[in-house]
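To whoever is covering the structure queue this week,

Two jobs came back overnight. Logging them here so there's a record in the thread.

Job A:
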Amino acid sequence: MVIDQKLAHERILYEQFIQSVAHNHSLAQRELYPTKIDLDPSDYLIVQDIKEELLGLGIDISDLGSNTVVVNSCPAGLHYSNHQDVLEMLIEEYKETRQKIKGSATMTLAAALARSGALEYGRPLQYSEMQRLVDELFACENPNYSPGGKKIIIIHSLEEIEKLFD
């Protein structure tokens, strides 16, 4: 069995975000120093359109006008050092993801947020982290596919694996 760690983490985060919205219990972490961000006019309009959905996911944004917003909180458990990069990445992911995932804005944003916050490819994991990732993945409603529909798990027979080394 081969598990794509990034896609697995993406699925886990996505389902956590959807559950928090469904139970009206976002896990937001207030920022000690809120971040002021100047956006492109088109991105600013997108943020205004999805502001309520962002709040449901734990991202509290205040509007300062003139294409400027302030990030007051982010989802707990996701550690970003640069909120501007995260918001811009989230907007880009939202633009891309809404084309792939047909559903509500909340589902699209949850998928985009999960995609941007998931483990990076090639990041080494400790055994305990791998075990937790696998346990959390198999506790998901749909552990086989990412929110974007990509396979997370591939099972190879012993014969297939042996052929790879011939």
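Job B:
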Amino acid sequence: MHKDKKSDPYMSNSANGLPEDFTLSLALVDAIPVVLFCCSMLLIALRFHSALFLIGAIASAFAGCGKVLWKIIIVAEQKNITWLAKQFRYLISAGFLLMILALIVNRSHIRWHVLFVSLTAMPSVLFFIIGICGMILMFIFGAKLDKTNVKSNWIEQCTNLAAQLCFLLGIILV
């Protein structure tokens, strides 16, 4: 079956088969939300004390790092190592699944009322709401925007950066 190059972010219309218009600045901006996410997950893991949660957070962090590395290699070496990009969807999903599983397994150790009050207190709740809106926008962008278009990539990365920064600020304030 023929695969449309515009629908696959790992394909390109360029002669060398690389996604077009990736720049080092875009790759580096993509690294910032990964760092912010890692900080957020580390703060949660330090408070939650769950090995399963920590493993899930590490898997998710590696997924993000792999995607950033893919973009840096595209720019620096003009090589498209597609497994680095494709691993993201599987590893991030596995990581989030493990973190959710950790919440379920350790639910008896969580003081849900205290957690709910902390999460909904001002101003942290505002940061969480903005972060959730950013993640919803990321899902919409993922479905609607052309993943090979540089402008679309900048929109997605700036939205992700803002969302991850808000989540981190919310976690710090809890």
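Note for Job B: The two ends are 50 Å apart (CA to CA).

Please reply-all if you pick these up so we don't duplicate work.
Q.
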